[in-house]
Specification:
Elements: H1 4-23, E1 33-36, H2 41-46, H3 48-58, E2 62-65, H4 78-88, E3 91-96, H5 103-113, E4 117-120, H6 130-149, E5 153-157, E6 165-166, E7 169-170, H7 171-177, E8 184-189, H8 190-195, H9 200-206, E9 213-216, E10 218-219, E11 226-227, H10 236-240, H11 243-246, E12 250-253, H12 262-275
Parallel strand pairs: 1-2, 1-12, 2-3, 3-4, 4-5, 5-8, 8-9, 9-12
Antiparallel strand pairs: 6-7, 10-11
């Protein structure tokens, strides 16, 4: 060290770096990004194995199935789709199924396919009333018990309507308040929740640990339609910073409205999320 001034410059710089280091947190990458296959409903209906192969090439690892005209697995049997997933290095973590008289069949299939979660994408009965949502909650509790017996976790996926009110009560809150947190989990569709005027962070705080699954999408600035990430109005980074309260395990890209081939759309979304830091 040539002189005291040089020493102070170096020491001062080291002190500044130490202060910055303690005050800064390393930016995090988005992890456990999956895709809901409703986004690829047409190609999955035509060529499920080929479409899953393309998703694996893009880089997706986590898959959520959706109901189709050919069943919950696009014409494949539970053991067949399980094998396809293993061959491609994919995980079939979750799946949606229509609530009907064959619900137990969906549970059995989910268990055979190796799914961790089975989701209802709609209420068992129609009616935007508090009473109907309480009845739905009762049904969901029973479904949760049935799923648990088969080693599967039951959950519910929201749309926009669930955030309507009756007599000042938000119907989605009624559903949460009347379901057993140990038996019924929620897959919060962040995009549609925000379109409905709801704040996901509020739900993560009030119902901590109830949201292990997310549906993620961007929403057009001038229309309530989904669009590729980065082209809409959703502040997804803000939501990621709140994820610990939700106990989020998997997030699934879902884009219902397509302006280009589904595989190309899912590639754009995946690449955007891979570059995102929060």
């Amino acid at each position: 060290m040539k002189n005291r001034r040089d020493f102070l410059k170096v020491a001062g710089g080291a002190t500044l770096l130490s202060v910055l280091g303690t005050g800064m947190t390393k930016a995090k990458k988005v992890k456990n990004v999956g895709v809901n296959l409703f986004s690829l409903r047409e190609p999955m209906g035509l060529d499920p194995v080929g479409t899953l192969t393309e998703l694996a090439k893009i880089g997706y690892k986590i898959i959520e199935s959706a109901p189709s005209a050919k069943g919950n697995y696009y014409g494949l049997k539970p053991k067949e789709i399980k094998q396809v997933m293993q061959d491609l290095g994919l995980i079939l973590a979750s799946g949606h199924a229509i609530i009907n008289a064959d619900w137990q069949k969906s549970i059995d299939e989910a268990a055979e396919a190796g799914q961790e979660f089975l989701l209802a994408p709609m209420l068992p009965t129609k009616g935007q009333t508090v009473d109907n949502y309480k009845k739905a909650a009762e049904t969901f509790n029973k479904m949760g018990e049935a799923c648990k017996k088969s080693g599967v976790t039951f959950g519910f996926h929201n749309g926009i309507a669930e955030f309507e009110k009756e007599n000042g009560q938000v119907l989605y809150d009624v559903l949460l308040d009347n379901t057993d947190a140990a038996l019924v989990k929620m897959e919060l569709d962040l995009g549609w929740a925000m379109v409905a005027g709801a704040n996901p962070a509020y739900y993560f705080e009030k119902y901590t640990g109830r949201f292990p699954l997310w549906h993620i999408k961007d929403i057009k600035k001038d229309k309530d339609e989904s669009i590729e990430f980065g082209k809409g109005k959703i502040d997804f980074v803000a939501m990621l910073k709140k994820q610990s309260k939700s106990a989020m395990k998997y997030m699934f890209v879902e884009q219902e409205h397509l302006t280009q081939p589904a595989i190309d759309t899912m590639s754009v979304n995946f690449n955007y999320l891979q570059k995102l830091r929060y």
